[in-house]
C-alpha cells in the first residue's frame, strides 16, 4: 500500500508519540544518522528496559514463592515441595589449556589439564 492510496486516519496518540520522538531526534540525534535509526535505537532501549523489568519481577516472585515454602515448612507444613524431583545438571566444566589458547571441555581432558 502506498501513501497515495492510504485513506485511513492516524490516532492522536501516534501523532503525539511521533512528534515527541522527532523533537528528541532533532535536539539530540546521538549516534543516529536519520529518524528511522533513532526510532529503532529508542525501541531497542525500551525493550531492554522491559526485559530487565520482567526478569526482575520473575526473580522477585520466585524468591517470594521459595520464602513461602520455607516458612510453611518451618511452621510444621509438608517439606515435599522443597525436594527437587528433576535431574541435577551441574555447570559445564571448562578450562583454558595452559599450553595454548584452546578451551578444554571434554571431562577426560579436563582431568589431565595441569
Would you write up a description of this structure?
The chain is 54% helix and 4% strand. It contains three helices and two strands. Strands 1-2 form a two-stranded antiparallel ribbon. The N and C termini lie far apart (66 Å). 1% of the residues are buried. The mean pLDDT is 83.
Termini separation: 66 Å
Strand order of the largest sheet: 1-2
Order of H and E elements = HHEEH
- What is the alpha-carbon Rg in Å? 27 Å
Which sheet architecture does the biggest sheet show?
Answer: 2 strands, antiparallel
Based on secondary structure, the structural category is: mainly alpha
Give average pLDDT, whole number: 83
Summarize the model shown.
With 114 residues, this protein is mostly helical. Helix content is 54%, strand content 4%. 1% of the residues are buried.
Amino acid at each position: 500500500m502506498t501513501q497515495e492510496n492510504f485513506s485511513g486516519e492516524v490516532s492522536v496518540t501516534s501523532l503525539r508519540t511521533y512528534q515527541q520522538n522527532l523533537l528528541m531526534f532533532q535536539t539530540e540525534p546521538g549516534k543516529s544518522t536519520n529518524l528511522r535509526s533513532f526510532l529503532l535505537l529508542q525501541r531497542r532501549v525500551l525493550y531492554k528496559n522491559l526485559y530487565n523489568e520482567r526478569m526482575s519481577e520473575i526473580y522477585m516472585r520466585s524468591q517470594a514463592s521459595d520464602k513461602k515454602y520455607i516458612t510453611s515448612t518451618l511452621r510444621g507444613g509438608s517439606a515435599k515441595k522443597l525436594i527437587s524431583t528433576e535431574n541435577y545438571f551441574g555447570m559445564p566444566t571448562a578450562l583454558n589449556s595452559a599450553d595454548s589458547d584452546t578451551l578444554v571441555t571434554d571431562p577426560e581432558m579436563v582431568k589431565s589439564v595441569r
